[in-house]
Automatic annotation (TrEMBL):
GO BP field: fatty acid alpha-oxidation
Molecular functions per Gene Ontology: (S)-2-hydroxy-acid oxidase activity; FMN binding
Gene3D superfamilies for the chain: Aldolase class I
EC number(s) reported in the record: 1.1.3.15
Keyword Transferase (UniProt): no
Protein name listed in UniProt: (S)-2-hydroxy-acid oxidase
Catalytic activity: 2-hydroxyoctanoate + O2 = 2-oxooctanoate + H2O2; a (2S)-2-hydroxycarboxylate + O2 = a 2-oxocarboxylate + H2O2
Keywords: Flavoprotein, FMN, Oxidoreductase
Domain annotation FMN hydroxy acid dehydrogenase: ranges: 1-357
Length: 357
């Protein structure tokens, strides 16, 4: 089968992954309204293409935090890549290195931060961080990623508790015995008997996290801090006031609060509030180069894909993730040309037909 678009990879993954693994990756919270709206929202946005603009040469290159990447799509932090492909995050890291884009590695990786860095020594990586009740756990992993050359911390703030994902409960989802959350290997020995949730003992996440924890992070690291999980202008303003370097507009792929807005619908008010003081990124629902174009036009500096990377892994490991990224880059280049944009800097809100929003 010729893989033409990301939906082809989705169908392949659905057919070839086990039911519980497929359900885990595909899950949204509760009725999956927000998960589904992340995709549908793009279909409500119409473009205003410009013509006769000499698009014989086009350039998709952009920068994030001052670092050049080949196009404005990176890999979002997603857990347990070894469920989809035996090399897991190592394959993802090599693919993003080859394509020259940003990979946000997940705390809940089935390969360690050291193994990921070794697999792709020249890759551009950020690290996604949760804060735990035991702050020493968080601090230890920050020290490790600093030493390994990770370039930013992505502080995920929308999981004081885990959303209710019905199929995971029905399937009694847990990691198979041969896999583990490698970053915490050996760290929970004293809690070996406690109930496990997504590879770590239940109740390790700290529901008391607040804005003061941004200050705590800044006090222990010099890495740039990016807040992931902002959906309102009020929280965007607070993030800027607290001195972060970036915001990822995200609803956790619709896996946390159901009934919240699609991320692309939140993007304009956040971009308008931030006014260029920090970079704004987003994830959720990106399936085509057209989607990328719309997000960049509405002010995102870069977008990140989650589930599609898993589908690429399920298809052919590193090669599959490279294929996913290449398809998105080719589609973005074509959509840019057909709408009259020669480079990423020319993509702006004039492309968006606001009467339809």
């Amino acid at each position: 089968m010729t893989m033409v678009c990301l939906t082809d990879f989705e169908q392949y993954a659905k057919q070839h992954l086990s039911k519980s693994t497929w359900d885990y990756y595909e899950a949204g919270a509760d009725e999956c309204t927000t998960r589904d709206d992340n995709l549908q929202a793009y279909k409500r946005i119409r473009l205003r293409p410009r013509i006769l603009r000499d698009v014989s040469i086009s350039d998709t290159m952009t920068t994030v935090l001052g670092t050049e990447i080949s196009f404005p799509v990176g890999i979002a932090p997603t857990a347990f890549h070894c469920l989809a492909w035996h090399e897991g995050e190592l394959a993802t890291a090599r693919a993003t290195e080859a394509v020259n884009t940003c990979y946000i590695t997940s705390t809940y990786s089935t390969c360690s931060v050291e193994e990921i860095a070794e697999a792709a020594p020249n890759g551009y990586r950020w690290f996604q961080l949760y804060l735990y009740r035991d702050r020493k756990l968080s601090e230890q992993i920050i020290r490790r990623v600093e030493a390994l050359g990770y370039k930013a911390l992505v502080f995920t703030v929308d999981v004081p508790y885990t959303g209710k994902r019905r199929n995971d409960i029905r399937n009694q989802f847990k990691l198979p015995p041969h896999l583990k959350v490698k970053n915490f290997d050996g760290m929970f020995q004293d809690q070996a008997e406690s109930k496990e949730k997504y590879g770590t003992p239940a109740n390790t996440l700290d529901p008391s996290i607040s804005w003061k924890d941004v200050g705590w992070l800044q006090s222990i690291t010099r890495l740039p801090i990016i807040i992931k999980g902002i959906l309102t202008k009020e929280d965007a303003e607070l993030a800027v006031e607290h001195g972060v370097q970036g915001i990822i507009v995200s609803n956790h792929g619709g896996r946390q609060l159901d009934g919240g807005p699609a991320t692309i619908d939140c993007l304009p008010e956040i971009v308008d509030t931030v006014q260029g003081r920090v970079e704004v990124y987003m994830d959720g629902g990106i399936r085509t180069g057209n989607d990328v174009l719309k997000a960049i036009a509405l002010g995102a500096k870069c977008v990140f894909i989650g589930r599609p990377a898993i589908w690429g892994l399920a298809y052919k490991g590193e090669e599959g993730v490279r294929d996913i990224l290449q398809i998105l880059q080719d589609e973005l280049r074509l959509s840019m040309a057909l709408s009259g944009c020669r480079n990423v800097a020319e993509i702006n809100r004039n492309l968006i037909q606001f009467s339809r929003l």
